[in-house]
Amino acid sequence: MAQRATILTSLAGDPIWGCESTPEIRCADAYGHGLGWMVYDYGDRTVLNHGGNDAGENALVYYSPQTRSGAVILVNGGNGIFVTVRALELIGDQPDMAAYYRQLVRKHYGVTMAPGA
Q1: Across the strands, what pairs with 58?
Q2: Boundaries of each Beta-lactamase-related domain copy (predicted)?
């Protein structure tokens, strides 16, 4: 884990992946790319994340070493990101990440997803 932290490339202010703090969204204290994974440091826990999507598939894999929780979410279909966000919310172990992904959906798709709606 220490090696990942030393190789971290910050995404703060990034036009694609940047997080905007709001009363509903707690952005990670530090986040960026590290050894092929996105790394989110929330202070009390780190979440490692890797995903991808195209016109027909959407995938999200995440794991937190501190909480020993994670998931592999695979969705077929052009609107897979919406289902992925809902699955992340239903799993419920990373609410900050779910809120961040709702923000990305608003930013990139122009759709506001209310929590759990």
Answers
A1: 53, 75
A2: 32-86
